[in-house]
Specification:
Number of strands: 12
Distance between the termini: 45 Å
Radius of gyration: 23 Å
Order of helices and strands: HEHEHHEHEEHEEEEHHHHHHHHHHEEHE
Oligomer: single chain
Helix content: 40-55%
Number of domains: 2
C-alpha cells in the first residue's frame, strides 16, 4: 500500500480524526496467525455520519503514477492463474442500465421492511463479535460502485494467500446482478457443483489423502500446514486417520456419500427434521446453518449440528476431530481442496483442451458461454470423480434478466 500512496497511514489518521471513517483497532500479524486462525489487517468503515451517503467513483488526474492497476500481482500468480485472468477483457460487459434499475427496485422493496434485511456478523474488537441486521442501503451503495466499475471495464481478479481462492469482479457482484453480464454479446451459463462443501469433504475420509498416496494429496493444497497439525494430534492420542477405512464402510457414511454425490444432502436433512428443529421446509436456512456450523468451533451449537450428529455420527466425529483446537481448520481445508481442484486441475485442463473458450470461476462453479456447457460438464464430472471417488451432481444456470422473473 505504501508503494502506491506514500504515507497513506497519515491520510487514514486524518480521516479518523475528522470523523469520516472509524477503525476497529484489531489486527493479527502473520507471526500470531497460527494461534488466532488467520492474518487480519485493520478494519475501516465510514462513520455513521457518512455511511448513509451515496458513493461514486472519482478519477484522480495528474497523479504521477497514473491509474492504479488493481491486477498487479506476483509473477507466480500470473503464471498459475493467467489462463483465468485473461478473460477479464473488453468483451466482458454488463447492462448497467438494467442492473441499476433492478438494484433500485431491490432496495425500494427492502428499505422499510426490516424483516427482509440480511444478518451480518460484525468483526473486530471495537465493532464487536455480534450478529446484527444489515441495512440494505449499505449493499445498495457498494453494489452501485461495483456496477460503475464493471461498466468502466475496471476489472480485477486476484488469488488470496489463505486458501488460494480466486476473487474477482464477478465473485464480488450480487448473484442477481450477474444476470446482466454477457461475454462478447453472448449469454453466460454457470455450471455449479451441488452440495459443494459436503461433497468436497469426501476427500477427508480417504486415508490416502492424509498419507499423500491419493490422486490429489494433502501436500498439493494451500493449507498443508493444517494437515500437519491434524497428523500430530492423530499420532499423539487420537488415531482418527487409522479409523477412516472403517468409517468409510459404515452404512451411515455410505448414505452420506450417496446423498452428497446426488446433491441431495440438504433435502434429506430437511425431510429428516422434526418440529423441534424449526426449519419448516426452509432449505436456505438449513444450508446457512450447515455452513455456519462448518466454520464454527466445536463448542458452537445449532439445530443443524444436533441433526447432523444424529443422522451421520461418523462424519460428525471426523469434522469435530479436524476442528479440535482451531475452529477454522475444516473450512480452510475444504476451501483449499476446492481451489486446488477447480483452479489447478479443471480450468487448466479446459484451457488446454479449448484455449478459445471463455471461462470464469465462482469458487465451486464455472461460468462459460452456451457453446462450452457440454465440455465444462464433461471435464468437471471426470476430474471431480477422479479426485473424490464419487460422481458429482451439477446444475446449470443461465444468466439472463429474464431468469429473474421466471
Amino acid at each position: 500500500m505504501n508503494q502506491r500512496v506514500f504515507g497513506y497511514q497519515h491520510y487514514l489518521k486524518y480521516l479518523i480524526k475528522e470523523g469520516v471513517v472509524e477503525c476497529d483497532g484489531y489486527y493479527v500479524p502473520k507471526k500470531r496467525s497460527h494461534m488466532l486462525g488467520a492474518e487480519k489487517c485493520l478494519g475501516y468503515r465510514f462513520s455513521s455520519k457518512y455511511s448513509k451517503q451515496p458513493l461514486r467513483i472519482v478519477s484522480i488526474e495528474g497523479h504521477d503514477k497514473g491509474k492504479v492497476n488493481r491486477n498487479e500481482m506476483s509473477e507466480r500468480k500470473q503464471r498459475l492463474y493467467g489462463h483465468l485472468g485473461k478473460w477479464f477483457n473488453f468483451k466482458l460487459e454488463i447492462d448497467a442500465k438494467g442492473a441499476r434499475e433492478f438494484l433500485v427496485a431491490w432496495y425500494e422493496g427492502r428499505k422499510d421492511n426490516e424483516a427482509s434485511w440480511e444478518w451480518k456478523r460484525s468483526r473486530g474488537r471495537r465493532f464487536g463479535q455480534v450478529l446484527e441486521k444489515k441495512d440494505p442501503f449499505a449493499s445498495f451503495k457498494y453494489l452501485n460502485i461495483a456496477i460503475d466499475a464493471f461498466e468502466a471495464k475496471d476489472f480485477y481478479w486476484n488469488v488470496d494467500d489463505t486458501t488460494r481462492r480466486l476473487h474477482s469482479s464477478l465473485t464480488n457482484l450480487k448473484k442477481e446482478l450477474r444476470n446482466f453480464v454477457t461475454y462478447d454479446k453472448q449469454s453466460l451459463f454457470c455450471i455449479d457443483l451441488k452440495n459443494s462443501q459436503p461433497y468436497l469433504s469426501l476427500l477427508l475420509f480417504k486415508k490416502e489423502f492424509w498419507t499423500n498416496e491419493h490422486y490429489i494429496n494433502s501436500e498439493d493444497i494451500r493449507q498443508y500446514r493444517i494437515v500437519q497439525e491434524i497428523c500430530k494430534i492423530h499420532y499423539k492420542k487420537e488415531y482418527m486417520i487409522d479409523k477412516l477405512p472403517k468409517i468409510a464402510d459404515t452404512e451411515p457414511f455410505k448414505e452420506y456419500r450417496n446423498l452428497v454425490s446426488r446433491g441431495e444432502l440438504y433435502d434429506d436433512l430437511l425431510n429428516y427434521t422434526d418440529d423441534s428443529n424449526s426449519f419448516h421446509g426452509n432449505r436456505k436456512q438449513l444450508k446457512e446453518e450447515f455452513v455456519q456450523w462448518l466454520f464454527a468451533g466445536n463448542q458452537f451449537s445449532n439445530p443443524l449440528k444436533r441433526l447432523f450428529r444424529e443422522r451421520f455420527p461418523e462424519a460428525y466425529e471426523l469434522f469435530n476431530f479436524i476442528k479440535k483446537g482451531r475452529k477454522n481448520r475444516l473450512a480452510y481445508l475444504l476451501q483449499s481442496i476446492e481451489s486446488t481442484i477447480f483452479l489447478q486441475i479443471i480450468t487448466k485442463r479446459l484451457n488446454r483442451k479449448a484455449p478459445y473458450l471463455p471461462i470464469f470461476t465462482l469458487h465451486d462453479g464455472i461460468v462459460t458461454t452456451e457453446a462450452g456447457i457440454g465440455l465444462v460438464q464433461q471435464i468437471m464430472t471426470e476430474e471431480l470423480t477422479n479426485c473424490l471417488g464419487a460422481k458429482p451432481a451439477l446444475s446449470i444456470e443461465k444468466w439472463s434478466p429474464e431468469e429473474l422473473f421466471s
